[in-house]
Amino acid sequence: MNHMDQVRMLEFPVNGDERGHLVIVEGLQDIPFEMKRLFYIFGSDPEVVRGQHANRKSQFVLINVAGTSKVKVKDGRGNEAIYCLNRPHTGLFIPTMVWKDMYDFSEDSVLLCISDEHYDPAEYIRNYDEYVKAVLEENE
């Protein structure tokens, strides 16, 4: 199974009036899972690369609620795609077993990460060669 086929941009409804805008993101409605963990990345320089891992169990939605960043996803078979996160009402859905690199952060970037799992370091694959091996084993 190629998990990268499931990677996709999500668009969230924007509500608001002359006072400003409001974006609501609800689990199992606007994103395809129940939320269990939120974290956000800010203060990263443009040359910093974050992520650099895949997850065996966790799925993610990444939203740049301020500023911009890019996300490169890979499937371990030589396929990759780059997404630009530059609107606070869109997010990138990343399922399990997809390698992700977040980079090219604007100075004002705040990247919100939503996950369906609590943090468990054992489910992270942080070495790309190990990731490629796990992808090949998964498809045997």
Brief synopsis:
This protein has about 140 residues and is mainly β. Helix content is about 10%, strand content about 45%. The strands form three sheets. A five-stranded antiparallel sheet has the order 1-9-6-11-4, with no helix packed on it. A five-stranded antiparallel sheet has the order 8-7-10-5-12.
Characterize the structure shown.
There is one protein chain. This protein has 140 residues and is mainly beta. Helix content is 8%, strand content 44%. The strands form 3 sheets. Strands 1-9-6-11-4 form a 5-stranded antiparallel sheet, with no helix packed on it. The longest helix is centred in the C-terminal third of the chain and has 11 residues, at 128-138. The chain is globular, with a radius of gyration of 15 Å. The termini are close together. The mean pLDDT is 96.
How does the SSE layout of this entry go?
Blueprint: E1 8-11, E2 14-17, E3 20-23, E4 37-42, E5 50-55, E6 60-66, E7 69-74, E8 80-85, E9 90-94, E10 99-103, E11 110-115, E12 124-125, H1 128-138
Antiparallel strand pairs: 1-9, 2-3, 4-11, 5-10, 5-12, 6-9, 6-11, 7-8, 7-10
Keyphrases for this structure?
5-stranded antiparallel β-sheet; 8% helix; globular; mainly beta; 140 residues
